[in-house]
Amino acid sequence: QLQLVESGGGLVQPGESLTLSCETSGFDLSWHIVAWFRQAPGQEGEGGAFISAHGTRTNYTDSVKGRFIILKDAASNTAFLRMNSLKPDDTASYYCGLKGDPYDLTWTTARRSDDFYFWGQGTQVTVSS
């Protein structure tokens, strides 16, 4: 059964850190680009972080660059998003998405949510004092 489950969200104060997890079953993450997208109420979704199928390349949107780190553990088929120096603007629902790319053919172009076709249910992150 194909499944993605995000966890690790919560309420934190500005400047604090959180680590989100994306546990997958039925997938081999070494064959998939993993992305973390986020969506705040009333706003368009934003692709925040991406990691290539073989885990050798990452890409971040400017708003999170230098603060967020995306990782994947092929052995457990789990991806992570380490979020440091959180700001109120980071408040959103965070979603993990997968796109099959075993030969690294689409790494440079897969940045839109509709490029990804497996999604989890999301986890809420709220940054507030």
Name the descriptors:
129 residues, mainly beta, seven-stranded mixed β-sheet, four-stranded antiparallel β-sheet, 0% helix, 47% strand
Give structural notes.
With 129 residues, the chain is an all-beta fold. The protein is built from no helices and 11 strands. Strands 2, 4, 5, 6, 9, 10 and 11 form a 7-stranded mixed β-sheet that branches. A 4-stranded antiparallel β-sheet has the order 1-3-8-7, with no helix packed on it. The protein starts with a strand and ends with a strand.
Q: Structural class of the helices, strands and pairings?
A: mainly beta
Percentage of residues in helical conformation:
under 10%
Q: Compute the number of helices.
A: 0
Characterize the main sheet: 7 strands, mixed
Strand content: over 45%
Distance between the termini: 40 Å
Low-confidence stretches: none
Mean pLDDT over the full residue set: 95
The dominant shape is: globular
- Reading the helices and strands in chain order gives EEEEEEEEEEE
Number of strands: 11
Rg, Cα atoms, Å:
14 Å
